[in-house]
Amino acid sequence: MTDRQQARGRLPYGLLVPAAVGVAFLVLPLVALLIRAPWSHLLTLLATDDVLTPLRLSLETATLATLVSLVLGVPLAWVLARLNFRGRSLLRALVTLPLVLPPVVGGVALLLAFGRSGVMGRWLYDATGYSLPYTTTAVVIAETFVAMPFLVVSVEGALRGIDPRYDEAAATLGASRWYTFTRVTLPMLGPGIAAGSVLCWARALGEFGATITFAGNFPGTTQTMPLSVYLALQNDPEAAIALSLVLLAVSIAILAGLRERWLRA
Amino acid sequence: MSLDAHVVVDRGAFSVDVSLSVPGGSVLALLGPNGAGKTTTLRALAGLLPLTAGHITLDGTALDGMAAEQRPVGVVFQDYLLFPTLSARDNVAFGLRARGVDRATARATADALLARFELSGHADVRPARLSGGQAQRVALARALAVSPRLLLLDEPLAALDAGTRMTVRTDLRHQLEAFDGVTVLVTHDPLDALVLADHLVVVEGGRVVQSGSPADVARAPRTPYVARLVGLNLLRGHASGTHVDLDGGGSLTTTEAQQGPVYVALRPSAVTVSGEQPHGSARNSWPGTVRSMEARGDTLRAMVAGPPDVLVDLTAAAVAELRLVPGAAVWCAVKATELDVYPAS
Predict the structure, then answer these.
(1) Residue A92: CA atoms inside 13 Å, Cβ hemisphere, count?
(2) Taking a C-beta distance cutoff of 8 angstroms, is the pair A216, A222 a contact?
(3) What does the pLDDT read at residue B281?
(4) Which one of B48, B63, B96 would you mutate to disrupt binding with A, by most A Cβ within 10 Å of its Cβ?
(5) What is the mean pLDDT of residues A94-105?
(6) Which partner from A68, B70, B227, B246 sits 20 to 30 angstroms from A49, CA to CA?
(7) How far is CA B216 from CA B194, B199, B212, B329, in A?
């Protein structure tokens, strides 16, 4: 332990009051959720198709979105971290824009691009008669659009932490660039990719705005957990609470899984 | 088998222009201060840096057009750069695997090398759990596993603590003796160069300032940097027979006659210091002022400003007897037989 970690600093006590209010503000809503939860018949509530169908859809689409993000996002992170080219800052800004963009705007943009009369969607519809919006594929696309930047940012950070001279060491041993990437870089990136994937998956699981705009709200095909929570709140509040508990449990599990990386700051 | 290289790398404000010629089975040390261009030269030999001009020829084959991964070259990096996700065995086997050797053969070769380097017990260990000396040997084994014709070592002992460095240096010498290719090692530590190398090339400011056998370089340094490295005073002057007029002022009498520009080298321990002007024959003497003193083992090394300015080694008893402090006025004396004089060009 370093001296810096041992030193505590001198606390101005006036900060304690707003800090306590802040904690209460963040924690009380979750406590309310736990207090009002229909614990007695929770399992019966959760075992219905109204819950299980959107839950399964959410898990499947979030996992698919994460896989797509991995396939596209890891190479993208590599380009951002390791290639020097003009406009790299601009590219990074574009790639991370969905992090701060209101998701509903993302949904509108996706409609304009991939909708039946969209920039690319029209071409797709004319060629194949297939229309993307309001399908399960559209859910995956909306989730990927919103969640992939989390993976890219996380993996890019991890790549920057790896000494590029490992590539040189591999080259002097006769390794091709591809062999070096798969045998040296990727294994060293493992923890960064894992953390990025979990963040990406969690963001995809909670996606609401872009999904409902681009994919709609059709039970069985596009109605994911967050959508069904919102709907249930209007006519079956107990079911909404039960669904929310499931998402809360998933979030806590993710935090617990990542605590080694972030909560020990 | 031999290496013949003329490395020219121009990086704007800094340029390197170094020629090397090394016979097979021998070790050449590139010695020089930090920023002299040693590592740049090594990286160019390895193919990690393109040549601006010049050539690299190994056993009659031109290497300069080849990519790093195609050159028959092994590199031990200063901080080793062992792959942290691979065991020691897989690090050593890496180069063979990358060249398409099957896993079983590559691992068997790696195990044999690890055994030769007395690392069998550490084959399954990740690099983070190896000691500095072990990591150095794994790095050397990794570089040798692909049977390179040219072995490049960048400050191979710099990452080790002083105690380990001694034993690793001796081991490294034996391992390099067993290697029949060409070895080029970069170091700023004269002891590494003297112990490990058959041939020394001193580089300063991107240029070769002196080359020769370690013994020759140590005996007759040609720059103040080399003189300081080998612990000698180096004075430059103009000789007329056994009389040398020093460039910085003062003159010396030598036993060996020379003509024209010369260097005069003298050991700090050959200079005697006294409070009064010494008498006697064959002695050079001059008055000076003690500028600074520092302890070096069981002696004290004093800087005495003349002219000429010299470093002097004194015993603690002499310092006490003469009541030497910085600022004290003293007389320096040195026998003509202690002076090494050699032409400057």
Answers:
(1) 18
(2) yes
(3) 58
(4) B48
(5) 91
(6) A68
(7) 11, 10, 6, 35
The span from the CA of A181 to the CA of B107, in Å, is 21
- Report residue A2's pLDDT band, with 50, 70 and 90 as the boundaries: low
- State the amino acid at position B323 in one-letter form: R
Q: Give the span between the Cα atoms of B319 and B290, in whole angstroms.
A: 11
What's the mean pLDDT when you consider all of chain A?
A: 87
H-helix or E-strand containing A243? helix A237-262
pTM exceeds cut of 0.80: no
Helix (H, G, I), strand (E, B) or coil at A86: coil
Interface of B with A (CB under 8 A): 46-48, 67-71, 73-75, 77, 81, 83-86, 94-95, 97-99, 142-143, 146
The partner residue sitting opposite A172, judged by closest CB among B73, B83, B84, is: B73
Residue B30 contacts residue B185 (beta carbons within 8 Å):
yes
* Confidence (pLDDT) at B41: 92
Return the closest-CA partner of residue B117 out of B130, B95, B134: B134
Contact: B68, A165; criterion CB under 8 Å: no
Q: Is the pLDDT of residue B282 over 70?
A: no
Report residue B186: phi and psi, to 5°. Answer: -110, 135
What is the C-alpha end-to-end distance of chain B, expressed in Å? 31
Q: How far apart are CA B143 and CA B78, in angstroms?
A: 13
For the stretch B121-142, pLDDT in tens is: 999 999 999 988 889 899 999 9
For residue A108, the model assigns a pLDDT of 93
- Residue A175's nearest CA partner among B318, B302, B94, B343 is B94
Residue B237 parent element (H or E): strand B233-246
SS (H, E, C) B36-87: CCHHHHHHHHHCCCCCCEEEEEECCEECCCCCHHHCCEEEECCCCCCCCCCC
pLDDT at A213 over 50: yes
Q: What is the mean pLDDT of chain B?
A: 86
Distance from CA of A104 to the nearest CA of B (A): 42
Q: Is B157 in contact with B192 (CB distance < 8 Å)?
A: yes
User: In this complex, do A174 and B69 lie within 8 Å of one another by their Cβ atoms?
Assistant: yes
- Other C-beta atoms lying within 10 Å of the C-beta of residue B239: 23
